[in-house]
Amino acid sequence: xxxxxSLLCARGPLSEGEVGGVGCVMDSGGVGxxxxxxxxxxxxxxxxxxxxxxxxxxxxxxxxxxRPKDEPLERMLSRIxxxxxxxxxxxxxxKRKNNSKGNGGGGGGDEEGQPPNGDEMDVAVSLLREDxxxxxxxxxxxxxxxxxxxxxxxxxxxxxxxxxxxxxxxEVNQAVIVGCPVxxxxxxxxxxxxxxxxxxYRKGHHHTSPPHWLAYGPMYVPTPEDIGSRLELRxxxxxxxxxxxxxxxxxxxxxxPAGWRERRIATFARQQPKDTSATQDSLWGGWGAxxxxxxxxxQEQERASPPLRVCSFNVLAPILARTxxxxxQMFPYCLQEHLDIGYRRPMIARELLELDCDLxxxxxxxxxxxxxxxxxxxxxxxxxxxxxxxxxxxxGSACLLRRGPLD
Length: 407
Hints:
Layout: E1 3-7, E2 38-44, E3 51-58, E4 61-68, H1 73-88, H2 93-103, E5 125-128, H3 141-147, E6 150-153, E7 156-162, E8 166-171, E9 185-189, E10 197-203, E11 212-216, E12 230-236, E13 245-249, H4 260-267, H5 277-304, E14 310-314, H6 318-321, H7 324-330, H8 336-339, H9 341-355, E15 359-366, H10 367-378, E16 382-388, E17 395-402
Parallel strand pairs: 2-7, 14-15
Antiparallel strand pairs: 1-13, 2-3, 3-4, 5-6, 6-7, 8-9, 10-11, 10-12, 12-13, 15-17, 16-17
């Protein structure tokens, strides 16, 4: 599936009064009291990296600055000032003319934060501590942001968030098939992925059509209604919804035709034992009464301790599926793209979900498949373990035991 990742500037479905997002007022005692709008600004400072990343919104657009940690604050503030001056600079006549044609008339001063006409505006920018004192511009950037509470930019206040929970990677590396779970690959920083919000949207191919909300959660199962559209996944932390990530999946496929797999699933479906004691009693007289009593006792035991559902499944490790032996001798009837784990992964996940076993024993389980598919999909309801074979192939046997009665 073709996927692209971008930084979200929109807040999504949360209202502006929620969890410190755009439009909120800082807590009591902080800079920005008195009803002024305070926007969030994020600073990422990691000990192992020589640079820091500063992200903020200006004129409705996200700006990211990657600067050396030991760079004097004066230089970074100067860069912020230059970026803002570029945004405030009046458009050229040619651009205004083009905009007039595209927008049905109007000058170059329609955009937020841009003056109608005039000379280049002066921009005031400073970094303040919580007591409103300015951080010295000779201070190194990393130290300056660790001391700061607020950035002021032409009267706009930004609350500084150092190393807040963030999405580092958000990808969909699988075929997207109707009826099969879509399990994204998610990496987060400074907080566990379980604390993040995941939202799924259906998008048309026309950019003017608004996205249609589908579901919450880190997994989504496409429906026939999704065919012909694109899926968008948004991930963000509730404390800073404006600084999330999104990825768009372009192609949604029809599932393979129903057949032996569906019949096998139906055969394996859970069934309650039938009570035949009355029939046995009528057939066997006195002996039938004794037999019926014994059968009734067995049924009561089964109800108290339901049957254990077990499946053993060879999932064909991707590294083994790419060998010539697999492609030309073991599975010569199978197309190469159907042997690819990106195609098989969602259908294996669907199979295991529908089997609904208490114990799953999976052979040829590659470590990456275990970490990126089995654990995210089943980790909350099963105890997952894996034992790898000796060698460099990183594949082995995985077991998943249902939590609860079997603990």
